[in-house]
Amino acid sequence: xxxxxxxxxxxxxxxxxxxxxxxxxxxxxxxxxxxxxxxxxxxxxxxxxxxxxxxxxxxxxxxxxxxxxxxxxxxxxxxxxxxxxxxxxxxxxxxxxxxxxxxxxxxxxxxxxxxxxxxxxxxxxxxxxxxxxxxxxxxxxxxxxxxxxxxxxxxxxxxxxxxxxxxxxxxxxxxxxxxxxxxxxxxxxxxxxxxxxxxxxxxxxxxxxxxxxxxxxxxxxxxxxxxxxxxxxxxxxxxxxxxxxxxxxxxxxxxxxxxxxxxxxxxxxxxxxxxxxxxxxxxxxxxxxxxxxxxxxxxxxxxxxxxxxxxxxxxxxxxxxxxxxxxxxxxxxxxx
Amino acid sequence: xxxxxxxxxxxxxxxxxxxxxxxxxxxxxxxxxxxxxxxxxxxxxxxxxxxxxxxxxxxxxxxxxxxxxxxxxxxxxxxxxxxxxxxxxxxxxxxxxxxxxxxxxxxxxxxxxxxxxxxxxxxxxxxxxxxxxxxxxxxxxxxxxxxxxxxxxxxxxxxxxxxxxxxxxxxxxxxxxxxxxxxxxxxxxxxxxxxxxxxxxxxxxxxxxxxxxxxxxxxxxxxxxxxxxxxxxxxxxxxxxxxxxxxxxxxxxxxxxxxxxxxxxxxxxxxxxxxxxxxxxxxxxxxxxxxxxxxxxxxxxxxxxxxxxxxxxxxxxxxxxxxxxxxxxxxxxxxx
Amino acid sequence: xxxxxxxxxxxxxxxxxxxxxxxxxxxxxxxxxxxxxxxxxxxxxxxxxxxxxxxxxxxxxxxxxxxxxxxxxxxxxxxxxxxxxxxxxxxxxxxxxxxxxxxxxxxxxxxxxxxxxxxxxxxxxxxxxxxxxxxxxxxxxxxxxxxxxxxxxxxxxxxxxxxxxxxxxxxxxxxxxxxxxxxxxxxxxxxxxxxxxxxxxxxxxxxxxxxxxxxxxxxxxxxxxxxxxxxxxxxxxxxxxxxxxxxxxxxxxxxxxxxxxxxxxxxxxxxxxxxxxxxxxxxxxxxxxxxxxxxxxxxxxxxxxxxxxxxxxxxxxxxxxxxxxxxxxxxxxxxx
Amino acid sequence: xxxxxxxxxxxxxxxxxxxxxxxxxxxxxxxxxxxxxxxxxxxxxxxxxxxxxxxxxxxxxxxxxxxxxxxxxxxxxxxxxxxxxxxxxxxxxxxxxxxxxxxxxxxxxxxxxxxxxxxxxxxxxxxxxxxxxxxxxxxxxxxxxxxxxxxxxxxxxxxxxxxxxxxxxxxxxxxxxxxxxxxxxxxxxxxxxxxxxxxxxxxxxxxxxxxxxxxxxxxxxxxxxxxxxxxxxxxxxxxxxxxxxxxxxxxxxxxxxxxxxxxxxxxxxxxxxxxxxxxxxxxxxxxxxxxxxxxxxxxxxxxxxxxxxxxxxxxxxxxxxxxxxxxxxxxxxxxx
Lengths: 336, 336, 336, 336
Description:
The structure is a homotetramer of 336-residue chains. The first copy, chain A, has 336 residues and is an alpha/beta fold. Helices cover 32% and strands 30% of the residues of chain A. The longest helix of chain A has 19 residues, at 309-327.
């Protein structure tokens, strides 16, 4: 039985606590938060869990195997580093750290201590995204032409991070998981509509070494919620709409076929294919439950997490490059 | 009764012929196309219309008041210039010309000859776009924050022009008509998936002198058709979905209110407003009929077209800047 | 080349003329309508077609092979009978006749004269309905449990016939074509909201000899248009939404499995299956073109039409029974 | 502080417990269920609540003010009667009782004891339904022409009651609350697809003394979930779609206008109006919270519940009549 301590009981922490309580193979022993009233709520729901205000009490508790961190980004590095140094396995909320230097140090520390360092890229553990990866791994789409994601709504304005750190990171984590290639450069644009606050609208184009392009559109200030991803391939195309109640992933047997014949000026070189559409059944397990079980499995069997420190670092580096490009109004920035 | 000659009877020409035939105040006297079989089809439908293969026969026909040009982009300049020099009024398919130098010459020629030069930016004549302009003119949205357009489908690949010239120009024409400010610079990205062919996916971010941003996403290779525009303002927001059968324009009384109070690190500076949604009734007149009547009105009463040569030139300049930026992978390019 | 005469050039007639003009194997020689201005419009479009005011001129024209009738219901019998007696093949707009006695006489006359009598049940010739029939014929759904159709919109109020004759007949024609069994009795309800006018809202439940039920909801007075048919089977289920631009037919691998075990009072006897959804590609041919070609084929090769007089009679009998039930506020009426 | 005891902690009980725990003015003191494992789950969540297996312990607990009953229908009468006789106020899950005789006895007992008897018709407490009532009360639709409800999904098969008792009762409760008139007779049809089990598909037409009609379609065996209600009026029409995330209620300024002039046979007596659509903002309070507060308010201030015993009785009588009609395959049955 893996004994878990959770730091941060704000918006996301309760979901983590519930899932590590429900998962066979783990239990939550203690939760830390600075806000007394949050802990009081926790105790009503989970009277067996210890509540503390000081994270050091968790690090120093030798009965704990793992620390789960769900605090603001700025504290990720310090808390995760302290947990690793105390010999704990660590699951940290996305993004892994506030910059790539910190992310690298965490990876190194985890390697040195032979501890698991996993990042909570939740979408990677959804049935929809796993199905997409399965399809792409099986080359069901042919050559991948583009990946286009829209993630917009009237959402909570953050003040410490902009909309790329908050929303686009979800799409970057999905791309990192499902696409065979990694982006090499980025052009980003965006704007803040509230003076002195981080950007609340942003657009990112990601370039790859092959004939592929990706784009992410994120916005905290739209009247309707959209979660719409298109993946185009030479053979088939996917529409992934996370707001659909059941058919979240649709595969279209559509595309173009390029003819070799010479053509007149008014005519086309390409003809169109339009075939069936298919929406595979998706497992209904909550993503965070799949993720909790995967974390436990990595601890017990020494496996590498699907969203390990390296994945976390790749995302932080991509966001860093995007922010640099955004400051330069779209200028191309290489991703380290 | 305005007597019209039409050059080009391909995809769009038949719509122009039908509308100038149906409009009170105009009639189509002659149609020119190089393709004999296209003209044969026309004669079955409209036995009274003369059909010719040589556009000069139209220019030299002193009974004609106006020439409507619906040919490939590369021929716009030559045909429009010849028509103006023959003293005809001209309505030319979008884009006005293949480059801004040509567009400028056409504007100058029309001014010199006191002829009407109008560009067929069809969407400007739709009831939906006119309603949006009316709302923005009345300041119904407050400060405009962003304009975001998606226009994607499995569409005809063009070989002479890329997807920006083909599709984004519709969105640029709508923005030019409804927004009070004009874009000053652009960052564009895109890709061609068919070797040797123009870009079939493109993204454009448009910058303005105020706190506004615009973005256009166009793609000829998506499995589903999307025509989705979001316009965000400080007071209200619009969703314009051209595929909706009747409620194409929805106005949401939603947004954020910025509070002045000091806030703790976990809390927000902004609160959310969510009010009614409203979809105004839209006139069902076909856009091209409204446009034909406007063209006739400009000829008869000497009014300036809503989509005059200057509007056509602004769009061509914007697309030129976008293409330059696209070649430089997103680098900011000022719009002349 | 089949020579066709068309009677009635109102709402639907122009579509019939266009399709018999376009179909290889037929041409429209003459059109009859009482309204001079309708015929004038026709002559502009089709200068080669003769126009007459008296249908007898068509019956007496020995060059004509077939008569297509697109007039109000009350005139179907007289016109179709005269055409058959003149030795013409006949395609008559739905419903075949105003009552089953008339329909029977037409069938008998056609049989006696060895002429084709076909009814224009247009939906039978759509790709969507043909795909549904193909699936049901292949037993893809298992046992059919129910057929439920909704066909409502803000539509033209008819004064000679009620909404069952106008709209429900479409659904009855589809059922007649795709379902293996025929309804044996009907319970119908409805109402007229405009004094002195036919019912503009109606509901019909159709009973079968097996464990199946069907229901049709039609309404001329709804704010939104709905064309929604559900077909439930023991193995799979179909959603047919005629307003979907491309995926009109969706097949769901969903249902219930009945367990044999004894169950406690709070528990269920059935468990749920949820599998993939699949939307087959549908042919894009216009239904009326498929129908015109089928009519020509029946004339030339002596085949029995898919929508022959008997099909037309079955529908008229069903509607007669429904009207009788409607007058009795839902009382069960057997279908003859 | 109202002290509440809850009987039944199955599917719906936990929602009732949570809402009476959260409501200012009430607390849940004890919960009764026969299933030990359900009570164990409750104790983890709410360690302060007493758990018992015998409902008499609640009736005999003089500290309790009110009993909330969320058990199968067959036990409603016995439990509610015992609670009333013990001097408790009662909130009982829909339907109030298994037949109208029982419902009448409960109403009488509550009146005699001056206790509140309220039925949990949850939809009556949703913001959407309250907005519809407000609109109808203000005569915003003009004369009501029809009410048409569809409530279908792949749902839990019940064995003790059919789909009318389970699903249609929601629509009947909404109609009872929003419509000015009460139905006087019903024609119902339906079928069971699982031998020996209650009907899983049903259709009901409700007749009124005026020119109005209502219809309810319920089905436990459809591949897609639909919650779609149309209300047509002489002035305006409503579409209420409970699955819409935010715009659940849309009001359309659409309809027909009847002209008095004589008309030719091919023309219409009616012309069409098409105006704006409007979706009012709806309060986001959970319906059950509104309902709990209303129950508390009735107890404290002696008000009559919006969903009192009489409303419960009217629904039971309607369902009884519907079942009788269903057995007679649609024959009209008067509602007592």
